[in-house]
């Protein structure tokens, strides 16, 4: 009887294992059979675009850059460059930007060269340069913001020029684009609690979603830009569940961006925008349009683009 019981138990275990395997395979097949959501098809606002000297002076003249935007359905950009000549080149190409259907929102970048990345927050000549650029403006109109700037050590958010420029941004209603960690967000906002701050990459270091949520709740004028954001999508390119929930909770607080900091990003520009359209398509249409276009347009008072 003992041998018979053992055989019966073995048979039951094998049957259970076979059933579980079939169930898993069936669930996987069902998931695979689910249709992919249609990509978002509306206008895009690129809230993190660089037109640095190695792009506009070498590989990607204005016609090329605007062509990539136009083919991607990008209808407005935050333009900033190292040095600011690239932004001014885009801003002055009025006939070309109109033909491409792209509205240029110029920002003052704090970098004249790469050495400025690691010292701008203590350099009075950077503050003087910002004041001179504000006074001059651009062919596309006044500058609307400051940045992108980097703080590789969050404590440098307390540097004298960082404090001065945050207060200037608040006083002049300029938007700040900052590549910083979550600790620096607290420090920067302490200097100018009502400043409008776009958090580049919403923390490229991968601040947990709960920490991002806490900062959004603490600072009503904080927005997150999503290029390079770790964990945003899964390996398949599908939007992660925690980010989908965050976007649904805060539909008015996020922006997309390309971050064309090197020419390789320009060469892949259309693919970057296609990737954004894919995960945007997993959101409710109204939420997707706000993140893709509406939040940036509202921030700078831009009209909806005419159909193309």
Walk me through what this model shows:
With about 300 residues, the protein is α/β, with parallel strands linked by helices. Helices cover about 50% and strands about 15% of the residues. The chain has 13 helices and eight strands. The protein has an eight-stranded parallel sheet with strand order 1-2-3-4-5-6-7-8. β3, α6 and β4 form a beta-alpha-beta unit. α3 runs parallel beside α12. The protein is globular, with a radius of gyration of 24 Å. About 45% of the residues are buried.
User: Regions with pLDDT < 50 over 5+ consecutive residues?
Assistant: 13-33
The general outline is globular
Task: State the end-to-end distance.
Answer: 81 Å
> What structural category arises from helix and sheet content?
alpha/beta
Percent of residues in beta strands? 5-15%
Fraction of residues in helices?
A: 40-55%
Largest sheet: 8 strands, parallel
Number of strands: 8
Backbone CA Rg: 24 Å
Number of helices: 13
Please list the strands of the largest sheet in the order they lie side by side.
1-2-3-4-5-6-7-8
Query: If you average the pLDDT, what whole number results?
Result: 91
Q: Order of SSEs, N→C? A: HEHHEHHEHEHEHEHEHEHHH
Features:
308 residues
Task: Detail the topology: elements first, then pairings.
Blueprint: H1 2-33, E1 44-50, H2 53-59, H3 62-72, E2 74-80, H4 85-92, H5 94-100, E3 103-108, H6 124-136, E4 145-150, H7 160-172, E5 175-179, H8 182-191, E6 196-199, H9 209-218, E7 222-225, H10 241-249, E8 254-255, H11 263-267, H12 269-280, H13 285-300
Parallel strand pairs: 1-2, 2-3, 3-4, 4-5, 5-6, 6-7, 7-8
Helix pairs in contact: 3-12
């Amino acid at each position: 009887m003992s041998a018979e019981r053992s055989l019966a138990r073995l048979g039951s275990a094998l049957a259970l294992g076979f059933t579980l395997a079939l169930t898993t395979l069936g669930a996987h097949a069902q998931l695979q059979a689910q249709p992919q959501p249609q990509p978002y098809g509306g206008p895009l606002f690129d809230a993190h675009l660089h037109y640095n000297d190695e792009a506009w002076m070498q590989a990607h003249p204005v016609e090329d850059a605007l062509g990539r935007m136009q083919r991607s359905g990008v209808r407005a950009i935050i333009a900033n460059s190292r040095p600011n000549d690239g932004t001014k080149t885009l801003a002055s190409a009025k006939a070309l930007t109109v033909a491409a259907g792209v509205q240029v929102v110029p920002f003052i970048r704090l970098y004249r060269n790469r050495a400025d990345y690691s010292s701008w927050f203590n350099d009075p000549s950077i503050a003087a340069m910002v004041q001179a650029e504000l006074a001059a403006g651009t062919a596309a109109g006044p500058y609307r913001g400051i940045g992108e700037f980097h703080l590789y050590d969050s404590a440098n958010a307390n540097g004298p020029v960082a404090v001065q420029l945050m207060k200037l941004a608040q006083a002049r209603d300029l938007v700040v684009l900052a590549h910083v960690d979550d600790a620096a967000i607290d420090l920067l906002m302490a200097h100018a609690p009502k400043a409008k701050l776009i958090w580049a990459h919403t923390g490229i270091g991968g601040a947990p979603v709960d920490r991002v949520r806490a900062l959004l709740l603490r600072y009503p004028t904080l927005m997150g830009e999503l290029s390079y954001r770790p964990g945003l999508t899964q390996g398949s390119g599908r939007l992660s569940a925690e980010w989908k929930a965050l976007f649904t909770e805060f539909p008015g607080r996020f922006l997309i961006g390309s971050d064309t900091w090197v020419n390789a990003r320009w060469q892949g520009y259309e693919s970057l925008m296609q990737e954004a359209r894919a995960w945007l398509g997993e959101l409710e249409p109204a939420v997707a349009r706000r993140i893709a276009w509406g939040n940036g347009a509202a921030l700078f008072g831009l009209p909806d683009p005419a159909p193309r």
